[in-house]
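Below is a filled-in request sheet from our internal design queue. Each sheet records the structural input a requester submitted and the sequence that came back. We keep these sheets so that new team members can see what a complete request looks like end to end.

REQUESTER: design group, bay 2
PRIORITY: normal
MODE: inverse folding
CHAIN LENGTH: 277
BACKBONE (tokenized):
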């Protein structure tokens, strides 16, 4: 560009213009050198990179000048990104992404906890509106291990139709049947599950606790006061229960029937599948 500017100026001077006027006319014809440089950068498509480098140099200078403010601003931005990411993750899982259950568009959850008797009243009284209805209760418990130690796990007592209604797949063993979880002649409290209970393990707990050994099927788990529920199956990987309390490691069949004397035990969440239409 300097060469072209000089040549044009020389041509104006040879035409009889004074040197100052020749230089002025050349600048008017070509534009200023800085303007030409900016246009060339834009034409090459590298302006964005130069702008980024300039912004980065400015940011580094300001960081060295005011390190406290820079640290506070960085922490604020990081916190904002973290909160936004967490909110989107929850929104995506709960509102945007389809629930990983069978007939997920027709599932409804009871708004308040129910007693066992309330659940059976609701299940039998709303057959016209619901294709099926099940109940679950999730809680934390301490279970002993074979080596004498103990671990804290999440347990879920569910009606025997729960896993089938939700579309959960069984990887090993079997699903619950209507004969599982039958209470003894004397009705026991909801905690702990009655003797003779059967359990299905989540695949993640089955892998973590038993190393994926299918030989544990048919064996009783250790209980705090003696034998625990018998393991009859293992869920396929990936099935989770999106309810308060988290997804159980151990699923136990609850088939207590109509328990009128304990109507005050409001511990169950009912999930119903609304009929088509």
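RETURNED SEQUENCE:
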């Amino acid at each position: 560009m300097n060469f072209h500017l000089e040549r044009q100026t020389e041509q104006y001077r040879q035409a009889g213009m004074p040197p100052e006027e020749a230089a002025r006319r050349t600048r008017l014809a070509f534009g200023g050198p800085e303007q030409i440089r900016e246009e060339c950068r834009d034409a090459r498509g590298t302006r964005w990179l130069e702008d980024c480098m300039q912004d980065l140099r400015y940011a580094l200078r300001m960081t060295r000048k005011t390190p406290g403010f820079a640290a506070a601003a960085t922490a604020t931005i990081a916190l904002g990104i973290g909160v936004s990411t967490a909110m989107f993750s929850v929104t995506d899982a709960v509102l945007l992404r389809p629930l990983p259950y069978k007939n997920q568009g027709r599932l409804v959850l009871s708004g308040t906890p129910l007693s066992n008797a309330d659940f059976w009243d609701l299940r039998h009284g709303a057959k016209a509106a619901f294709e099926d209805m099940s109940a679950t209760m999730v809680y934390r418990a301490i279970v002993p291990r074979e080596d004498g130690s103990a671990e804290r796990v999440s347990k879920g007592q569910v009606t025997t139709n729960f896993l089938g209604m939700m579309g959960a797949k069984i990887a090993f063993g079997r699903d619950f049947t209507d004969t599982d979880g039958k209470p003894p002649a004397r009705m026991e409290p909801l905690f702990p599950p009655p003797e003779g209970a059967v359990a299905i393990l989540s695949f993640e707990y089955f892998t973590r606790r038993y190393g994926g050994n299918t030989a544990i099927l048919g064996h009783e788990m250790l209980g705090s006061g003696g034998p625990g529920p018998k393991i009859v199956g293992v869920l396929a990987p990936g099935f989770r229960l999106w309810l308060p309390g988290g997804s159980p490691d151990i699923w136990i069949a609850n088939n207590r029937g109509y328990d009128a004397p304990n109507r005050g035990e409001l511990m169950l969440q009912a999930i119903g599948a609304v009929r088509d239409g």
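SHEET NOTES:
- Confidence is low (pLDDT under 50) at residues 184-191.
- Residues 67-96 form the longest helix (30 residues).
FILED BY: M.R.
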